[in-house]
Amino acid sequence: MNKNTEKIEDKEQLITWFKTGFKKKSEWMVGTEHEKFAYTFSKNKNKYIPLSYDGKIGIKSFLKELSKFGWEPIFEEKNLIALKKELQSITLEPGGQIELSGAPLKSLHNTCKETNEHLKLVKDIGKKLDILLVGLGVRPNESFSEVPFMPKARYQIMRNYMPKKGKRGLEMMHSTCTVQANLDFDSEQDMINKIKLAVKIQPVVTALFANSPFYEGSYNGYESLRSHIWTDTDPDRCGVLKVALKEDFGFSSYVNYALSVPMYFVVRKNKYIDCAGKSFSDFLEGKLDIMPGEKPTIQDWENHLSTIFTDVRLKKIIEVRGADAGNWRRTCALPAFWVGILYGENSIGLAERICDKWTIDDIENLSKRVAKKGLDAEICGEKVLDVAKNLIEISRSGLISRNVKDAIGNNESIYLNVLEEILQKKNSPARELTKSFKQKYNHSMQELLKDIAY
What we know:
Blueprint: H1 11-19, E1 30-42, E2 47-50, H2 59-67, E3 72-76, E4 79-85, E5 88-92, E6 98-101, H3 108-129, E7 132-134, H4 153-161, H5 169-175, E8 178-183, H6 188-208, E9 214-215, E10 218-219, H7 225-230, E11 238-239, H8 251-260, E12 265-268, E13 271-274, H9 280-284, H10 298-305, E14 309-310, E15 312-314, E16 318-324, H11 328-343, H12 347-355, H13 360-373, E17 378-379, E18 382-383, H14 384-402, H15 417-425, H16 429-439, H17 445-452
Parallel strand pairs: 11-14
Antiparallel strand pairs: 1-2, 1-6, 1-7, 1-8, 3-4, 4-5, 5-6, 8-16, 9-10, 12-13, 15-16, 17-18
């Protein structure tokens, strides 16, 4: 039997599923996922507009061009919705954002090489098709009503359900972009240590990578509007992973939490069945009213876990997800920061000393403050800027101790240099962008987009 179609009979199987993700430290990998917006220039509107799915210059045309470079096309119904190449995939987000889900790779040199090769390819194809690819946390130029919807069934289920849970869920789906890192663990205790720390310091990372100060063509009042949008999306499945900071946190308590998150859908015979708001616990007991008597498969469980959108998320890997998309250097810096912190010798213990007194309330409040104030936000009387300095120092030491070198002898700590530059300026990317918008681009969003495009 295919493991993914194996029926789940009890909660213990779900706990065992997580344990199959254990990897020896010598086998730990890092993966990077990053999204970007796709634009073309409209002469009628005299501005850059997001690509629709169809049309001569559309998302489908873009994916077709990419498929000529060894990428296998993936279809839903008759719509081209994704591409695969070995362990990499290029996927289509709800508003036409293009995401690279990178392969798990042995070093930061490898994952940064993968990122650079991807960005060069999409840039080259963009030039050919007159498409601009941009890394920002939120769409800067257009209102939500101007964003086209992509033809994926799961997204339509989410569009129908999201407004029942928060005011900004549709904006989150269609108008935000992020970069995330995926990391391994070798035991339940190792997972606990890594998740607890990641949940605590994630708001600091949000501040460092804040890169969404514009909306509808002007300054929006936030350094990370993307982070703020998430606060009014869906409290059942978003925000700080509070269960991680409880005394009994482990696979069992995470399973309980995941079971409490309302469902979105079940897939049968490649068709999406709308289960929005229904209980996976009922499903586990064969009591799902629209599928009476049927029990979930492992694939159903994996699909359900993918609909949890906390800043830190647990699967068979740890996903750290709370950073705005940005330029290629910051896209490489995000996994570098986390590898140095979570894989370095003694680095978890050193980082824990910085935040061991922080409470759930402290962390939730900081998450809200960094969206507005960035590195100027404070926690327990200390500026985030100073906390970030200490964490980056720990991360750098962790990367140096790994001693993984590229072809010319650089260790992985080189990817943190861009974060050091942010700290020296005492300005997030959002502040630098805001300053440039006024001084360099003379309040022209079109000039800004052209200049910061990949």
